[in-house]
Amino acid sequence: MPEKFNYRQSLQMRRNYIGKPCKLHFEAAPLKIVCASKQYVYDDNGEEYLDCVNNISHVGHCHPQVVSAGQEQMAKLTTGSGFLNDVVAEYAKRLIETFPESLSVVYFLNSGSEANDLALCLARSYTKNEDVVVIDNAFHGNLSNMVSISPLRFKRQQLKQEDWVHVVPCPDTYRGMVRDPLHPDAGIIYANEVKRLMDQATARGRKIAAFFSECLLSQCGMILPPQSYFENVYRYIRDAGGLCVVDEIANGMGRIGEHMWSFQHWNVVPDIVTIGKPVGNGYPMSAVITRREIADSLKEFSSGFGGNPVSCSMGLAVLDVIKNEKLMSSAKSVGKCLLDGFRAIMPCHPMMGDVRGLGLSVGIEIVTDTDSRKPATEAADMLTYRLKQEKIIISNEGPDKNVMAITPPMCFTADNAQRLIQAFDHALADIEKGTLGRPIRPATEGKYTAAQMSIIVGDEEDVEQEPDSKRTKYFDLD
Length: 478
Description:
Blueprint: H1 7-17, E1 33-37, E2 40-43, E3 48-51, H2 64-74, H3 86-96, E4 105-109, H4 112-127, E5 131-135, H5 144-148, H6 151-156, E6 165-168, H7 186-203, E7 208-213, H8 229-239, E8 243-247, E9 272-275, E10 286-290, H9 292-295, H10 309-324, H11 327-345, E11 352-358, E12 361-366, H12 377-389, E13 392-393, E14 395-397, E15 403-406, H13 414-435, H14 450-456
Parallel strand pairs: 3-13, 5-6, 5-7, 7-8, 8-9
Antiparallel strand pairs: 1-2, 2-3, 4-10, 9-10, 11-12, 12-15, 14-15
Helix pairs in contact: 2-10, 3-10, 7-8, 11-13, 12-13
């Protein structure tokens, strides 16, 4: 079926009617994606791209089991706030069964921002305290309070840091105060920075309500804190009367492979967990899971659409697919392929500073050189465009936008990993040949030089056109 608008019309309408801060992938030459299946997306010309970034379509784009569950329930009942419904009750039970025993109550919402906002309300309601401790360069949502506890966001927007927000150093063992992931005391050194800041806050009469963090710090650049970090931080926070909140929105639901939830890798049990994005495989839904006494501290709460029967039906289907298709085991083995493969090519690339991650959450740090470890932001940006030429979608994230982030749908395969590593190897080599020995000229006001644009946009006439893919797609099935 032909598209309603051509590429230029779609681009112009977006520029006319959608807010400028809502950025596109490949801003200089955006893709128009019209459909998707499994770990692949397709543009308006029918070109297939390997999706290495979409952690929202958790079990694969348009998974038929999830789609069917939503369609069937939508034909029966779409909203039912305040009424009994078996689908909602069953999903609550099934979801809770994936958590440690103490985390026994769930609230349903619609987005990760809402989930984190409710977590803050619960922490304040239970502790009767106000202040929040967060990790530098973290991001926890777009609502007003969430921007206030998201250093990545309030610093970029040049907003004032609130008095009730306390920012601690990122426990980064690549370019932080401890630059050795094997340092035996790295965890306690970084945790003691949290204690030092809390002691300063309490000396000023402040009282801590919560410590908010991811465990695998995706927005900070796919940082893996030292193994003992959270154990010590949680002890300090709880001794001060606060609660420990884990944001599992980006890395939960089995993505790390070895566990369903990333906090389990660090052998801690938080007081509150927030989840979102992947739980509905693209359908807007989120949840807050906590202890009974914390849940009951909130005297009143309602959500018109949170936990509606359609979202819960799709949530149940996602849990079934993760189990039936053994996606956690796959994430563990394919993640190992990615980490081993990227580490194998590191000696050939002076601009590869670090490779880190768990399961299908992987980050590759791009630097000007491995001695200075200076972020090579522009080279990372160019690398995304160069891989786009190879029909691979990848993003550069982190506070300096120099960490290549790999967070594909969970159906990503070892063959996909091999293809990505080989293309990455060749693309980075091309960039290094043009940048090593001389600095990359800074782009002026977001514009690229002619040489940079040749990498970003490419020469379409020189690109060998691949034959139409014969791959079976979900949307081609009956």
